[in-house]
Design brief:
Blueprint (H helix, E strand, L loop, with lengths): L1 H10 L5 E6 L6 H10 L5 E6 L22
Parallel strand pairs: 1-2
Length: 71
């Protein structure tokens, strides 16, 4: 699970970059804040926009880019 992976990375001082693809119907700003709180403070955390072009879930094709980001 992701929490255990983050714990192992943090415990072993592994340099890491964490990314979240923000798909607005699936994640809220509160979700992004909670995810960020799991990432070690010394790690890089990036929020990348969802681009619907090649999504497997056709219901997501017409979504607009998530323009606001919490870093």
């Amino acid at each position: 699970n992701i929490v255990e992976s983050i714990r192992i990375i943090n415990k072993n001082s592994i340099k890491a970059e964490f990314r979240t693809t923000w798909v607005r119907p699936l994640l809220t700003e509160d979700d992004i804040i909670k995810i960020r709180s799991l990432v070690p403070q010394n790690a890089t955390y990036k929020i990348q926009p969802f681009i619907a072009g090649n999504t497997l879930d056709k219901k997501l094709i017409n979504l607009k880019l998530c323009e606001s980001a919490v870093n």
